[in-house]
Amino acid sequence: MSAARVVGAGLSGLTAAWRLSQAGFAVEVIEAAERPGGLIQTIGTRNGRIEGAANAFVWTPSVATLFKSFDITPQFASTEAGRRYIFRDGQPRRWPLDTAETVTLALRAARGALTGRSAPADRETVLEWGDRVWGPAATHWLISPALQGLYAAAADELAAGAVVGHGGSLLRRGRASKIARPSGGMTALMDCVVERLRQQGATFKFGARLEALDPSVPTIVATGARAAAPLVEAHAPRLAAALASLRMTSLALTTGFFQPDERDLHGFGVLFPRDCGVEALGVRFDSDVFPTDQDPKWRVETWITRLDGSNGDLLDSSQLCRAAAIDRLALTGRINDPVDVVTTIRPDALPLYGPGVLDVQSRMEDLPPWLALAGNYMGRLGASKLLDVATEAATRVVRLSHAQSRRTASDTPV
Q1: What does pTM read for this prediction?
Q2: Residue 120: what pLDDT?
Q3: For the chain, which has fewer Cβ within 10 Å, the N-terminal or C-terminal residue?
Q4: Are residues 240 and 389 in the same domain?
């Protein structure tokens, strides 16, 4: 049995390890933290479970296959989760454009389909691309908030080529999809994968840091970009430099438990365009999305805020709670003290999907055959897409390892 190594035991690393194990490799997983899961963390509180990062998967064939492989019954989001809002002119709206702006958007979409001019230009920002293809109103009130809900960045910071792709199909991609997660929360899946891997002979080292990679062992580095850079440097220096230079975004999640009010808005949540008077990127209505997670007597909301130079002082729970209360007042017009609050800060949670991500993608061919990468800087974000990235990394290692074995066998004298 051939040996393989995975560095990182987050969602990407565990998925890659599982794929390698299924292909017959003896897998070793090395993780710097004391637990698996990476950013994913289901947190138990006295009032119920909450998620410290991604709360579900978009339900895709690869996600369905993963759940089936581990005999996990999916818990699908409630029908209310299909209602999503964007904040405009002091009100949450299902569709944020007025009639004239909607007609303009439709005409521009038709023109783009006929002329093929919807693809991003080289190094064009999402703001530039959106204004050119869809119009300023659609960019500001629709595209920008939708993207910041995923990438945690404004339209003028995002590279259109990194988030849109060459087909310019952003609006189709942005449609609400069915989402699901394990009934015990997202951490339940991580624990299940670790247990099954151990049953198949995989070994884990938690609280351990790898100082250098061994070229004799096929390896997948499934860490964040900053941790991957020094490991890759000796083997792909230009790629390592691109990884090290990626700008990162830190996030804070403030989850509040409130007494329900008949005036409460219901649905998945609300996104807030920049300069609308709200600091948060968005709010998720957890008690509507997966209502069985918490005590039904509470309304549960998670306010998601980006931490950067302008609000870097929001680093303790009391400040985050005050900021969330101000934002909640802007949304609801009411001041309600929560019965409980849980704050989670995620330093360097996401790479900024600007030109730096394009630079990383352009250097992937520098990797030697025995080495692959899997992470949220690979051009795809979201829990479901990370499964695909990890599977592709494992497929690369398996394919090239088998090719090397065939070459070795053919070179062996009979």
Answers
A1: 0.89
A2: 86
A3: C
A4: yes
